[in-house]
Each structure stands twice: as structure tokens, then as C-alpha cells.
Write a sequence for this structure.
């Protein structure tokens, strides 16, 4: 699994780190003033990424003074991850539209077009398999 080293939220960049232990039963922790976002190391891939989303929502809450609170953040984390799970093709298109990096679909495989020649090579290879 690959986690980002940093996460940009609004005007700030947060350092992302894995921690062996957390206070209480937390999966993650945000230190807004220090621009640090921590994730519990022993979590599985989905839970780590979902926790990053959760802590990013806290950062958005703090940055823009939304007053979402824990309940609001939890609700958005759950509904946004479910939205992505329920609509994976749209989610890939959304990422592509936001980043400007077109997607390349090769059969059931969708890869970023930034692979350039590699994507073309894969496409040619799979045509001949
Ligand atoms: Zn929280």
C-alpha cells in the first residue's frame, strides 16, 4: 500500500506519518498547528486511506471554520468513501478531470495516461495476447 508523504489541504501541506500507537482507540490524529497527520500503522489499506480522508476533513474543518465537529467529519468520511465505492468509474473520471491526467482503459484495467509510452506498449501487448 502506498500512502502519501504529504497531503495538501487548502493552503497548507501536512506531513503524513504512520504511528505504531495512538491515544485511546483512534485510527488517526491531526495536529493542525504542526501540519502533521498520523495514521495507525496496523490498519489495513482501506482503513488507512479512509483515516487520511477523515483527518483531511478535520483539517478542512479547522482551516475554513466549518464547525463540522467529530460527528460531521465521521458522516462525511463514511458517505464520501461509500460514494467512491459505489461509483468507481465516476471516481476515476473525477480524479482524471481534477488532475488533468487522462485515463487509459485497457480491457478491465484503467491506468493513468501519464505512463505515456508504457500505456501504449501495454495496449499493444494486450492486443496481441
Ligand atoms: Zn475525528
Amino acid at each position: 500500500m502506498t500512502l502519501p508523504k504529504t497531503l495538501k489541504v487548502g493552503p497548507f501541506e501536512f506531513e503524513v506519518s504512520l504511528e505504531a500507537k495512538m491515544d485511546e482507540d483512534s485510527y488517526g490524529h491531526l495536529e493542525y498547528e504542526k501540519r502533521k497527520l498520523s495514521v495507525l500503522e496496523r490498519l489495513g489499506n482501506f482503513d488507512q486511506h479512509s483515516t487520511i480522508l477523515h483527518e483531511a476533513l478535520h483539517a478542512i474543518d479547522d482551516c475554513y471554520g466549518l464547525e463540522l465537529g467529530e460527528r460531521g467529519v465521521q458522516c462525511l468520511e463514511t458517505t464520501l468513501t461509500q460514494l467512491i465505492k459505489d461509483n468507481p468509474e465516476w471516481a476515476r473520471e473525477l480524479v482524471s478531470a481534477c488532475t488533468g491526467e487522462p485515463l487509459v482503459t485497457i480491457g478491465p484495467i484503467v491506468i493513468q495516461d501519464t505512463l505515456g509510452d508504457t500505456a501504449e506498449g501495454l495496449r499493444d501487448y494486450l492486443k496481441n495476447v
Observations:
- The two ends are 29 Å apart (CA to CA).
- The CA atoms of residues 54 and 75 lie 9 Å apart.
